[in-house]
Amino acid sequence: GLDKPREIALASAVAEAGWPASTTAKPRVSLAEAGANAVASAPQPSSREDIALFDEGQGVFVLHLQGGGFDAEAAATLTQALRAAAAEPSLKTLLVLAAPGALAGGAAAVHAAALDAGLYRAAAEFPYPLIAALRGDADGPGLLFATLADVLVCAEQGRYALASSERRLPPRFARDLARLRFGRALADDLLLRPHGARGSELTQAGWTCSVLAADAVEAQARAVAGDLAAKSASALGLLKQELAAPLLEAVCALAPVDAAPVTSESELATTAAVELPAAAEGIRAYSLDAGVL
Questions:
Q1: Span 42-57, pLDDT tens digits
Q2: Beta-carbon contacts of residue 285 (< 8 Å; ≥ 6 apart)
Q3: pLDDT tens digits along 245-259
Q4: CA 26, 28, 32, 37 torsion-angle sign
């Protein structure tokens, strides 16, 4: 039979309250108090106690994110977790299970902190397939992190947004990477939505990632993880290299954004709104690139 899941602690003490019963286990690898069996890592800020990494056996590692919101500390802890998982010899795939809101709320300062921590690069360079299961809302830098997963599973009623004028995140902070990841049309459509889009709306817009009822997201993601873990580690490693190669340059080009007020429409548009006939009142068109409306 399968061994019980083993927790890889990201801090000296990890809160037990709220964790699924299947994940209660004693810490096995501690990054906060490095010992003989600890994974080596650069010094990091204190770890978030609502984020924990587990080895569930058969090459599947699961990173649980409770709904504490996405801030600088969460970005640092996620980076620690990715590095810890990547160093595990039995690893074949990593599943990120994000509770509603766990990857939401990050502003421009959090994006800068994620860059400083190396979060985006750690995700892009992860050596094996990465699966992100979002059971609810995700936005800004938290969603940008999730989009770097090789497999993305979203919730129908979850709201997803990259740009945000309220949080000083103009579309340009993620535009090039989003276009490369999802294609220009789908990326620009999401970036232009001032309040993002529901998962069901993403499906209607043409997104091909899995979008399911919230209570079905985890099961679908675990099924994908199980299928991947049944394959050889060498084959998965080669597959990951092929999938990640096109994204690395765009990830390395990510930069902090200034604190100037922005609006998603004005940032993405390169010219003013185009005049349309009176019969089309209520419809606006923007020039995204030369010759493209």
A1: 333 446 888 999 999 9
A2: 273, 274, 276, 293
A3: 889 999 999 999 875
A4: positive
